[in-house]
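User: We ran a pulldown and think these components assemble together. Before we commit to crystallization trials, I'd like a predicted model of the whole complex to look at. Sequences follow.
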Amino acid sequence: MQFFFEVLIGGLLAGVMYSLVALGFVLVYKASGVFNFAQGAMVFFAALTTVGFISMGAPFWLAVALALLAMVALAFFTERMVLRPLVNQPQITLFMATIGLAFFIEGVAQLTWGAQVHALDLGIADEPIAWLMDNTGMNISKFDLVASGIAAALVAVLAIFFNKTRTGRALRAVADDHQAALAVGISLQRIWVIVWVVAGFVALVTGLLWGARNGVQFALTFLALKALPVLILGGFESIAGAIVGGLIVGASEKLAEVYIGPHVGGGIESWFPYVLALAFLLVRPEGLFGERRIDRV
Amino acid sequence: MTAGRKIDRPILEIDEISLAFGGVVALQGVSFEVREHEIRAIIGPNGAGKSSMLNVINGVYHPQQGTVAFKGRKRRDVDPHEAAQQGIARTFQNIALFRGMTVLDNIMTGRNLKMKSNFLQQAVYWGAARREELEHRAKVEAVIDFLEIQHIRKTPVGRLPYGLQKRVELARALAAEPELLLLDEPMAGMNLEEKQDMSRFILDVNDQLGTTIVLIEHDMSVVMDLSDRVVVLDYGRKIADGTPDEVRNNKDVIDAYLGVAH
Amino acid sequence: MLYREAGQFKTTYAADQQLFPIRQDRIGMAILLAAVFVGVPLAAATPAIAGAIDFNYWFSGVLIPFLIFSLAALGLNILTGYAGQLSLGTAAFMAVGAFAAYNFELRVPGIPMLASFILAGVVAALIGIVFGLPSLRIKGFYLAVATLAAQFFVVWALTKFGWFSNYSSSGVITAQKLAVFGYAVDTPVKRYLLVLAIVSVMALAAKNMVRSSIGRAWMAVRDMDVAAEVVGIPMMKTKLLAFAISSFYCGVAGALYAFAYLGTVEPAGFELELSFRILFMIIVGGVGSILGSFLGAAFIVLLPIFMDLSAASIERSFGFALPAGLVSNLTLILFGALIIFFLVVEPLGLARLWQIAKEKLRLWPFPH
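Assistant: Here's a predicted model for the assembly, 927 residues in total across the polymer chains.
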């Protein structure tokens, strides 16, 4: 039983990390209706830029600040070169454009900083929390707990931002209808830059946490794909959904691997979340928190 | 309306249809019937439930209560696909043409139900599939001639002006050789000349092909001139049912349009 | 003035329905077919020309992969371009084809190789139908998840269950020697001709299907599925047929990939990356276009080669070695930029550009 809880909690904490990735997607989708496939590449780029500056001798805080600056520059670049020329194009076109963007960012990142794996040390050790270990015998990583805390804080801030501020309202308006937003005087370009800067910031936090955990390497770009089942479960437009979805995916993935995995040879984490998401979609096509679309003819 | 066309027994019977979306009631206990070979208009203020009524008839919406009987067969729920198979065709308020295809291809999709060759035969093409293509192409060309759109047959529909798109949509519906044709605001957005053309086409369809027509229309003069009988809806309920003259002088109808509170 | 239709009147619908209604197109196509089927092999057999050009490299490294990827792109185009069902699992269906063909050859003694390929395609088609079932309830973008599930699941299954690869380590299989109707297909020229023949036939079949009622049904479902239903097009049959036929094409492409190109394949060689590569081929080449599948495949196959050749010649002329990975990263950057460029400038891809060029050619040398 204790083992079950250990796996469950481990899964939940891993799930929080997934939520973080999904959060970046939800932000961009909520505010511009675009599924940003390049989010994974942005995570990679942010993390790589940070370790790149650190390896050049910069102190941690400076490296992070410079990386953030780089993300801001990236946001401007994306708005100008990708979003503006494709305004009002169908969703699928924008999605494919973000795939192109992902490749572009990956190439630039590796060209600038090289392709080796970098380690990132955030100062929090990936060891079992002593107190828990002694009292309950459960092995839960300190790092995972801190990461969850950071993610939770980030989510709270973003939720407030979206729902309570004027800019947040403008962001939601833009997501709903570009033309209508323009008609009430919202500057699409400004909004998009803001969105992508925020998404870049989330990418940076995500990149630092994931990079510290798994090393900063090219595989980070595939986080984009891991986020997809999370988004399907939680809906593409809900911050709360990203959290819940991430937790469900993380937990079920670990549990499936531990309890079902041995019977089929292991390694089912590669496809289990997708099959889960798929099964879910068949029952509820708009996700847990998504809005049901009614096609009017 | 023209002598020589015999209006027959009912081909469509709507019985106590009620339809709601969540909390919004679209139709409440609506009943009326449509006789074969007639032109029946459904009118009413905006939001009265007219499009919803058409959607129920051809299965796009499924009512919570009531039944629809087409050619004597009663049912509540039907698939749009089945409705098409039974001989119901329709056009849409906001034009539902396939934008990636030419006019000719759009109209050919109207014949899809009648084409029997399978994909293997079509992959080979020479033989059965080709014969069938040419046979149905001839039928489609007859519709194209009928609606006078020969000059645009190879144009992608996205490039056509609004009025012509509406005509192409009508052509697609006609290509299926339907017994019942549902037209949702066929004149919307047209100028006087285009309306006259469209009216002439609708009358010709009814007259020469004998198709029963149910149409939704806002232009009162069109309704009065074209239709044999009229149903008036308001807030999802039927408030009048009769000839254009009867309906025009009905107090409830006048109130509904003028917006008297009730 | 060469490309004029003056004097070419169509007096029957049959004449209008031809694949190449304009006579110049027919002549052009005939020349092209003669060139690829006869001209190229002849050139390869002529000592004078063969000495100057490394035909083996061009056959094995350029033309054969180009043809095979065109076939896979065709398959994907049928599903995503014509029927509008986004698929990110193309590579998985290719993998199914490759492994199925291998197993048929291995376990059914005396089976003709072409039959193995066809059966491999059929197996891929069946898998395609299974993963296409969700399309009946899920639309558009979400459907990508179903095909992603297919992509990851298939690769995992082929690796995990040793039966598929005859219990070799990490699932590697070595394709059996190619032989058709008793003739060994063992030189690059012969492989090229075999692949060319198969791809040509299947391309013709695809072209025929898209101009028939099934093609129109697919496009109707893509453009507005509610209206398609109202017109009487059967949703389930149309969508599942798209998945089945598309997967068949990808399966055969996968079989050729293993048997006529690489020789040795493993599940890891059919990863998501490959699916994306083929998706780019149809984006660049033109979604919803048979010609586009070929143009896109040519572009994506030739681009890295072009980059490598340029890098090599720069290194030669300037006499220094470029940093490792520079070319591959630049290729990545170029890829990404080109995708965006195409989506902005011409979302209908190279095929549309070709069409515009032809229209301009009809007027040339007059401006309008």
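Chain A touches chain C through 46 residues (CB under 8 Å). That may be worth checking against your pulldown data before setting up trials.

User: Thanks, that helps.
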